[in-house]
Amino acid sequence: MSGFTELASVDGRIGPTAEAVIGLKDDGLYRGDGAFEVIRLYDRRPFALDDHIARLERSSASLRLEFDRMALRAEIAALLEEAGPIDGQLRLIVTRGGRRIAATESVPVHAETTTVASVTYQTTIVLNGVKSLSYGANMLATRMAKEQGADEALLVRPDRIVLEPPTSSIFWVAEGTLRTTAIAEGVLASITRDRLLKAVPGIEEGAWTLDQVKSGSEAFLASTTREVQAVASIDGVALPEAPGPRTREAQEAFTALRDRELAAAN
Ligand SMILES: Cc1ncc(COP(=O)(O)O)c(C=O)c1O
């Protein structure tokens, strides 16, 4: 089921998301002080839930924010029970004000291919690797990319090293090798990226410049909601193939691994 009423659990109280409330005086809202996750639901089955909860714990620990993991787990189970057999996504939020939020959502529609425009971006060192509620800069970068006529931003450090788009990882093929930016350069430890590194042989991790990425033969974005999405152009320069052969290989390998994991977990 893909058309459904979005439901939210706030500290275990479940109701339609449109009617859910939290107290206004929460630094999650006032200062973006909190952490979040987005998890795909395939016919009500969450994919990689343990990894997402582990990352939420790491993000929260970095923020010095405590939350009751067992309570959140129980609230997720109750919410999914209430939601029924939906294909969608599950958002988890923990706020400085102490709220635990779990919400079902429709998955955003992504086209088969996308276009990206580079946006210069300096990582906030203390938030590196933290999936915090302070995503204003990421959202602004996407708007700036759209102003340039692209669908999505590609965050690039002032030293020209390519990081990632605001809500996904990037992979590309150059010199015959499939590459992605190393976590140590300041990108999020994406769970889709992790699965691709396991499922597709020969991916090289490192630091490459925008010019090196632009000269590639193909590229794709990877994330929970996109899975694997081909990139058609970077800064208006068309890539030779979209989707190219390594992109198709990654799509197939990810789908197979995902289906095996879902079958084993449920
Ligand atoms: C900055 C950033 N990079 C990468 C990703 C992709 O991560 P995942 O594969 O865990 O969804 C996200 C997800 O929203 C993100 O916010």
Can you walk through the features of this model?
Strands 7, 8, 9, 10, 11, 12, 13 and 14 form an eight-stranded mixed beta sheet that branches. A six-stranded antiparallel beta sheet has the order 2-1-6-5-3-4. The chain folds into two domains: 7-105, D-amino Acid Aminotransferase, Chain A, domain 1 (2-Layer Sandwich), CATH 3.30.470.10; 113-259, Alpha-Beta Barrel (D-amino Acid Aminotransferase, Chain A, domain 2), CATH 3.20.10. The chain is an alpha+beta fold and 266 residues long. The longest helix has 21 residues, at 245-265. 30% of the residues lie in helices and 29% in strands. The model has no long low-confidence stretch (mean pLDDT 97). It has helices at residues 27-30, 49-62, 69-83, 136-147, 191-199, 210-214, 245-265, and strands spanning 7-10, 13-16, 34-42, 45-46, 88-95, 100-105, 113-120, 152-156, 169-174, 177-181, 204-206, 218-223, 227-234, 237-238. It is globular and about 50 Å long. Helix 5 crosses helix 7 (245-265). The protein binds pyridoxal-5'-phosphate.
